[in-house]
Amino acid sequence: MVKVSFDKLEKYEETLERVVFHARVDDRQLRCLISRRTLEEHFTILGGPHMRVENCLHIFARNRSAIHDSARRLIGEMGASDLAAATELVLSPSFL
Predict the structure, then answer these.
(1) What's the pLDDT at 78?
(2) CATH number of the domain residue 8 falls in
(3) Does 64 or 47 have the greater pLDDT score?
(4) Residue 49: CB partners within 8 Å, gap ≥ 6?
(5) What's the whole-number mean pLDDT along residues 48-74?
(6) Does residue 42 register a pLDDT over 90?
(7) Nearest residue to 68 via CA among 94, 34, 93
(8) How far is CA 72 from CA 2, 4, 28, 36, 50, in A?
C-alpha cells in the first residue's frame, strides 16, 4: 500500500480553468488536477461560465478533504507500473 499525503499549495491555472495541487506518493510528487467545471458540478450550485478564480480556490479549500479522499482512492487503485509512470492525476466528475 502506498503512502499518500497532500500539500496545501493549490493554485488556479486560469487559461486551462483548473486547480492544480500535489500529492506526495511514497517518495515522489504527483501533480493533481481538477477542472473548474468539475468543481462547479460537484461542489456548488453557484457556478457559471465565468466563475472567478477566488471562487474556484474557495470551493476547493472548502471541499479539500473530499477532493483529497478521491485522489487518494484513485492513487490506491492504480497498479504499481501505472503509478510509477504517472506524472499527473486528473479528477473528473466520474471519479468523485
Answers:
(1) 92
(2) 3.30.160.140
(3) 64
(4) none
(5) 84
(6) no
(7) 34
(8) 9, 7, 14, 20, 29
Q: Provide the 10 A C-beta neighbour count for residue 62.
A: 13
Chain centroid to CA 72: 10
Distance between CA 71 and CA 55 in Å, rounded? Answer: 21
DSSP 39-67: HHHHH-S---TT--HHHHHHHHHHTHHHH
Domain around 86: 4-95
How many residues does the structure list for the chain?
Answer: 96
Residue given cell 481538477 in the structure block: 34
Mean per-residue pLDDT over the chain, rounded: 87
What's the total number of domains in the chain?
Answer: 1
So what's the pLDDT on residue 68?
96
